Amino acid sequence: MLSGGQSFFDKAEIKDLCAYLRLIANADDDPAFIRAVTTPRRGIGNTTLEALGSFAGQAKVSLFEAVYMGGIEARLSARQVEPLRMFCDFIQRLT
After folding, report:
1. For the chain, what are the domain ranges?
2. Cα–Cα distance between 27 and 89 in angstroms, integer?
3. How many CB atoms are closer than 10 A to CB 58?
4. What is the pLDDT of residues 59-91, one digit of tens each?
5. Using H for helix, E for strand and C for coil, what is the string for 33-53?
6. How far apart are the first and last CA of the chain?
7. CA-based nearest residue to 33, from 3, 5, 59, 67
8. Least packed by Cβ within 10 Å: which of 25, 40, 85, 91?
9. DSSP letters of 21-34?
10. What residues contact residue 86 under an 8 Å CB cut-off, 6+ apart?
11. Where is 11: in which H helix or E strand?
């Protein structure tokens, strides 16, 4: 670290990249999912993430797994589910 400078691992871009790598390595890493799915912006907001989190919690699955579960459409609109599935498909292609 440079004197007075920001630590390499404290930079937002590095934290974002680490979240993607953690999610690729472990799709059940919910904190990594939240950071990665919101960076860059995909039109996935707090309301969507809260509903997804509630659904995942009730089903006792990760956020990533909940995106593909039957019944998610009863909690989220198609407009909310589509970007989530597109993101998860992207992550799956990287694994």
Report:
1. 8-94
2. 12
3. 11
4. 999 999 999 999 999 999 999 999 999 999 999
5. HHHHHCCCCCCCCHHHHHHHH
6. 32
7. 67
8. 40
9. HHHHH-TT-HHHHH
10. 42
11. none
- What is the mean predicted confidence (pLDDT) over 4-10? 82
CATH number of 8-94: 1.10.486.10
Rg of the Cα atoms in the chain: 15
**CA distance linking residue 93 with residue 85, whole number of Å:** 12
- Pair of tokens at residue 63: 């956020």
pLDDT at position 4 is 64
Q: Return the structure tokens found at 5.
A: 């400078």
Quick check: 58 and 51 in contact, CB under 8 A?
no
Exposure of 54 in the CB half-sphere (CA atoms within 13 A)? 11
Give the type of residue at 44: I
Grade residue 2 by pLDDT with cuts at 50, 70 and 90: low
Q: For residue 85, give both structure tokens.
A: 């599935």
